[in-house]
Amino acid sequence: MDNPFGQHFLGIEGLSPHHIESLLDRADNYALLNRSRKTPRTLLRERTLITLFFENSTRTRTSFELAGKRLGADVINMSVSTSSVSKGETLLDTAYTLNAMRADLLVIRHSHSGAPALLAQKVDASVINAGDGMHEHPTQALLDALTIRRHYGTLSGLTVAICGDILHSRVARSNILLLNTMGCKVRVIGPPTLLPLTITKMGATPYYSMDEGIKDVDVIMMLRMQKERMQAGLVPSSREYFRFFGLDRRRLNLAKPGALVMHPGPLNRGVEIDSNVADDPAQSVIQEQVEMGVAVRMAVLEKFSQIKAQP
Amino acid sequence: MKPLLLTNVRLIDPKSGLDKIGRLLVKEGKIAAVDMPESEKLPDACEIIDGQGAVLCPGLVDMRVTVGEPGYEYRETIATAAEASAAGGITTMAILPNSKPAIDNPALVTLLKAKGEETHSVNILPYGALSVGCEGKEMAEIGLLQEAGAIAFTDGNKALENTRLMMLTMAYARGYNCLVVQHPEDPSLARKGSATRGELATKLGLPSIPAAAEAIMIARDLRLAELTGCRLHFGHVSTAEGLGLIRQAKAKGLPVSCDTAPVYFDLNEDAIGDFRTYAKLSPPLRSEEDRQAVCQALADGTIDAIASDHLPRDVDDKRLPFAEAAAGGTGLVTLLSVTLLQVKKGDLSLSDALSLLTYRPAELLGQQFGTLSIGVDADLCLFDPDQNWLVEAGKLPGRAQNTPFDNRELPGVVLGTWKAGRRVYARQSS
């Protein structure tokens, strides 16, 4: 069957609003089925899904595995520590090996931007990008979009602030691309050491002041602040970071009333977000993001399993 | 506080261009009238001081001062520095952060400001450290320091050597619209040097520092300013080549400024004579060509401010073989007088000279000081530009006495200094 998306799902870039809406619609449907525990467990029967994680991510890997299992796929997890990569095998060696095993779907997470794209050139399976370096994390952007759409009914016309380490964030890049495509206004907020000025070319407006950037926004997406960034000298300390870029109640009140608080997890409480904001059921949708993650990944797996390579 | 009228004074306010004989009224610590007409009625119980034609200008703003507090109180404390500054007509001092501990913690910024307030005679504007401990290894908490009151960021009389860290720090500082101040001297070239490279250093057998050490650091940092958009200031610039680079950068529109210190436009390397350690400074005194280039840059506006570069040293720090002696000189009491030498020579107008000592450094530091405007604090300096005085190390106000101008007769006697309308210095008639 033809798939208008192409064989692989490597990023948000290139997707039309129609593509995105169709995935979100499907995911919405899966969200309902998940809640009613009526998932179509035969849809991916006899399909093999391999999750190939060169970087730790329990959350994303589990979400993909659960999505595959709820659709009835045979799910195999290959983690780096047990793979031949640790013995010196290259990414392409791994690709050839997996190809020979005739997997249908390869979900890959890699610390280098472009690794899934390289793999996609060499395998017959559909490659799903589960996060590559600082490049893209498309299913995260989709699950964020789904979460927002469920609250506002639409994405168009909303103002979304993405706050924190934009420079190193694949989540930010995918979200900027998706939100722009869907007609949102996107702001990015962070210290200049973590905010590349060229981000404006991607369609986001930069702010160095959290108070200014967060003013009157509909959605606040917080990003995880890695300790390595402080060790690398990009930010002087976590106390300074929290003081100027952390989301607390006072800052949240600068956004529109009822603005959604989002975070891709895992949270650094007291570094980028205050617990009483993160855990506030009135505005925080962090748990819902996790739930939507499974639904979105089911929609993606469904869509990209439809182009299973013919023997 | 009684109202105060300073009458028969030459009012000079470089910011507004005012320069005329007149009178100035102070009420409740603020300037209430500038160039007050004779016909206007004085407030009740007004104290009147006849300036006898002396110059009344804004209290000087010294943007580059080291004190010994905390950590080196035997060299100078804020209280003793305040005493010296009052005698020099200075009412605002920006304090470099190279103390022990360095000013890399918001609590220390608060402490310095409080110490300044205790003196009631000088505004203390603390710099924050650019790197933790001024050690050039990790970025300091610039945002928190600024929030506590740090007015700009520098590692004081140490250059931040690591190019990557400098770039990141400048980029980060830009987010807070902070001014970054650099000591323009490549440390790897300056290491262990004690005099400027040239004939004299060779003759005396002193380890030397090439003048290019300054230009190399300036060139690097100008490039980083271009890259990051950060406001950048170079302290005590002393070479023709360095000033040439800054001149070009300004012409390109880069957000760059610089200051120099009196020692660099009045003295040259010859002042070290036969190993005179009071003239051992950082950067070292330069060649005559460089000195003349500094004079030229003062006149053409390349240099934005004159700072005392006050660096107090103990006698024991100086009473050592030249190469081992500590670098640095006192400068608070002589700041105005040595600058007036340039006026006497005809290189600068009096108003231009005072602009370099008052509102221009204040504006660089984002402060409102340094002007005679109605409603601002009455920070004032009254001085006689035509009267001379003898600099005598050992008899200077304040604790530090290591002046390179020892035994020089200088013009410009400060007759009185007022801080927020309160007289903090009065010249004793001899």
From TrEMBL, chain A:
EC number: 2.1.3.2
Record-stated family: Belongs to the aspartate/ornithine carbamoyltransferase superfamily. ATCase family.
Gene from which this protein is expressed: pyrB
Pathway: Pyrimidine metabolism; UMP biosynthesis via de novo pathway; (S)-dihydroorotate from bicarbonate: step 2/3
Source organism of the structure: Commensalibacter nepenthis
Domain Aspartate/ornithine carbamoyltransferase carbamoyl-P binding residues, every copy: 7-149
Binding site for carbamoyl phosphate: R59, T60, R109, H137, Q140, G265, P266
Record protein name field: Aspartate carbamoyltransferase
Function: Catalyzes the condensation of carbamoyl phosphate and aspartate to form carbamoyl aspartate and inorganic phosphate, the committed step in the de novo pyrimidine nucleotide biosynthesis pathway. Reversibly catalyzes the transfer of the carbamoyl group from carbamoyl phosphate (CP) to the N(epsilon) atom of ornithine (ORN) to produce L-citrulline.
Annotated keywords: Pyrimidine biosynthesis, Transferase
Domain Aspartate/ornithine carbamoyltransferase Asp/Orn-binding: 157-302
UniProtKB/TrEMBL annotation, chain B:
Alphabetical UniProt keywords: Hydrolase, Pyrimidine biosynthesis
InterPro entries associated with the record: DHOase, DHOase/Allantoinase_Hydrolase, DHOase_cat, Metal-dep_hydrolase_composite, Metal_Hydrolase
Residues passing through the membrane, by range: none
Annotated ranges, domain Dihydroorotase catalytic: 53-241
Superkingdom to which the source organism belongs: Bacteria
EC number of this enzyme: 3.5.2.3
Pfam family, one: DHOase
GO MF assignments: dihydroorotase activity
SUPFAM superfamilies: Composite domain of metallo-dependent hydrolases (SSF51338), Metallo-dependent hydrolases (SSF51556)
Protein name per UniProt: Dihydroorotase
Organism encoding this protein: Commensalibacter nepenthis
